[in-house]
Design a protein that fits this description.
heterodimer; A: alpha/beta; Rossmann fold; 6-stranded mixed sheet; 4-stranded antiparallel sheet; 8 helices; globular; B: alpha/beta; 6 helices
């Protein structure tokens, strides 16, 4: 049973001109088995939220707290956060030349579990996870994300989600850049993970189309570094019809 | 700090440049004055360290060569005249000129035409302190296939002149390992001639020594030749490692791919890579790419990386180069760590990955494993330094 609690989270992006505040007080509780969709316009800080929670070096949490099953994540290093059960499916997965997918996955699994996975099962598990994402098993011997298409990178992120089996997952625009077939494959993978029933999941997205395949428990509108409205999937339908304009205008008016 | 130069298509930027970086080859010592360090070809070099290699009058021995060659392969002692006759080109710098004129030992390794050698042919050249000079020539007969490994070990002040003649249609995998003890200074010139439709792969691994400076020249002896030239080097505090590549596309429809990678650590570590490619007027339809990557593992080390393209014809299939020098990629480390991999292990993966692309090309498992061990040793040194800090 995994609960992710974000409390009054403030974070800066570290730029060459100094730190710039992006997150301005995010509050969110994701209970076991819930899928929270966070939707917002470009530049609203959605990805910053994901990166700040995962511990990206370009972002700094200034105040606030993020706990996973009571463990304060903000005090942990990047890898310790993962060990605590956090997983971030990245919008821009990073290429690591010369490191094979299989070596990478085995090293990660070993680090997370504290022991090497049983070889016989592991090879099959990896093949199954790749196959489930319609990635040929030859991907196991390729360098991590190197030469992968945009869609293959995203599917690789979800294959990792299934293999590493975290307690809480944040999916940062996993749907962007996917064609309709890939979107379905990715959604199926996410749903398989959600069906475990006790995981906490945050789905960051710009578009509503992925919500045709993944049923969110809650939908949140994220503007100007915080959540401005929460509701059920009807809120997504409203966004689909009206866009974010109403919210961005309100935020701009509030800023004056 | 990362600098990257990319020239995917230079056909639109044709220029005619005299190949000013390459002095006229000559066997005459008089034509190669003792360098001061101000010359273009010596300006990156700590000439003091090479001083004794410039001295043509000093007494010198040769390295101790050990080998066990398979049937058909011959190793013959030759005279200075014979060596000059066989050589691909005359010396282009003082060290090579001294080696050419005053070698204690000259030999000719011959791999017969059509010979097909699955097992690597291994030579070990060992220094036992003091000045040593060698001029050696490797000839690979037409349509032969072989892997040759030359290992340099021990302690020496070593001046090298070597020539590699790969005849038409032959395939040579040439691995040289500079695995010297810490006090060694090694300078010299290697020249490779790639025959018509021949395929030559060179892997130059410079792992040890106080200073190593190799001029590696490649040219073609007929169209259709293909050259792959890989290098890896580890440079630790106070070491100087310099590779100077010159690929002369003097024949049409020839290919070259150059990829050198190094890791530096410790105060005073200095790597130099010069990558010159000359595409002559006659060299239509050629394809070339050269790349150099340096990983700066700690503060206080320096990498000079200078790729050059001199193009005299517009009719080429492709020409490009890239050079990058930087510290660990933060994003790569973040990505790996976000999957639970601890920082030290993430660094290990990144460094192994960085070199694996070169090491896997060696094609000889035993040597590959040794190189991986060396990568591991570099990482241990790094972690020890980090632990102290």
């Amino acid at each position: 049973m995994s609960t992710l609690v974000i409390t009054d989270l403030h974070a800066d992006v570290l730029t060459e001109d100094g730190p710039k505040q992006i997150l301005k007080g995010v509050n969110l509780t994701i209970n076991p088995g819930e899928i929270h969709a966070i939707m917002g316009p470009n530049g609203s800080g959605k990805s910053t939220l994901a990166y700040a929670i995962a511990g990206h070096p370009k972002y700094e949490i200034t105040t606030g707290s993020v706990t996973l099953d009571g463990v304060e994540l903000t005090e942990l290093s990047v890898d310790e956060r993962a060990k605590a059960g956090l997983y971030l499916a990245m919008q821009y997965p990073v290429e690591v030349p010369g490191v094979s997918v299989s070596n990478f996955l085995r090293t990660a699994k070993t680090a997370l579990d504290g022991e090497a996975p049983k070889l016989r099962h592991w090879v099959k598990d990896v093949e199954k996870a790749l196959e489930g994402m319609q990635l040929d098993k030859s991907f196991a011997s390729r360098s991590v994300n190197e030469g992968f298409s945009g869609g293959e990178k995203k599917r690789h992120e979800i294959a990792q989600l299934e293999l590493l089996n975290p307690k809480a997952a944040i999916l940062d625009e996993t749907d962007s850049g996917l064609d309709i077939d890939a979107l379905r494959v990715v959604s199926d993978g996410v749903n398989r993970f959600a069906e475990k029933g006790d995981r906490a999941m945050v789905l960051i997205t710009h578009y509503t189309r992925i919500l045709r395949y993944i049923d969110p428990t809650f939908v949140h509108v994220f503007v100007d570094g915080h959540i401005v409205e929460s509701g059920g999937r009807e809120l997504a339908d409203k966004l689909e019809a009206n866009g974010y304009e109403e919210y961005t205008k309100a935020a701009a008016a509030a800023a004056v | 700090m990362t600098t990257t130069v990319d020239t995917p298509n230079v056909a639109s930027a044709i220029e005619t440049v005299e190949s000013h970086l390459h002095p006229t080859p000559s066997w005459d010592l008089e034509d190669h004055a003792v360098p001061t360090g101000r010359e273009e070809i010596w300006r990156f070099t700590p000439v003091k360290k090479f001083k004794r290699l410039f001295d043509a009058d000093a007494e010198a021995t040769s390295l101790d060569w050990a080998f066990d060659v398979p049937e058909g392969v011959t190793v013959t002692e030759i005279s200075a005249e014979q060596a000059r006759e066989l050589a691909v080109e005359a010396p282009v710098d003082r060290v090579a000129a001294v080696a050419g004129a005053r070698s204690g030992h000259r030999m000719h390794i011959q791999i017969p035409a059509d010979g097909d050698y699955a097992e690597p042919i291994v030579f070990t050249a060992t220094g036992s302190g003091g000045l040593a000079r060698d001029h050696f020539i490797l000839s690979v007969g037409a349509n032969a296939r072989a892997t040759v490994i030359i290992r340099f070990e021990g302690s020496a002040l070593f001046a090298e002149k070597s020539d590699f003649i790969i005849r038409d249609g032959a395939q040579l995998n040439l691995v040289t390992v500079q695995d010297w003890s810490d006090d060694t200074v090694h300078g010299g010139q290697r020249t490779v001639s790639v025959g018509r439709n021949a395929h030559v792969k060179t892997v130059t691994a410079s792992l040890g020594g106080a200073a190593v400076r190799l001029q590696e020249n490649m040219r073609y002896d007929g169209p259709g030749g293909e050259l792959e030239s890989y290098g890896l080097y580890f440079v630790d505090g106070e070491q100087h490692v310099q590779h100077r590549l010159f690929v002369d596309h003097n024949e049409p429809h020839t290919k070259s791919n150059v990829d050198y990678r190094g890791a530096l650590q410790g105060k005073g570590a200095h790597a130099v890579w010069i990558g010159d490619v000359l595409i002559r007027k006659a060299a239509e339809g050629i394809d070339t790419y050269e790349s150099n990557k340096n990983l700066l593992l700690t503060e206080g080390c320096q990498a000079d990386s200078v790729p050059n393209l001199e193009i005299e014809t517009g009719e080429i299939a492709g020409a490009g180069h890239s050079s990058s020098t930087g510290r660990f990629d933060e994003l790569q480390l973040f990505y790996l760590r976000s999957r639970g991999i601890p920082e030290q292990e993430a660094r290990r993966l990144v460094v192994h990955g960085f070199f694996w692309d070169i090491i896997r090309r060696i094609g000889v498992e035993e040597v590959q494993n040794k190189m991986l061990e060396r990568v591991e040793r570099e990482l241990e040194t790094l972690e020890a330094v980090k632990a102290k800090a």
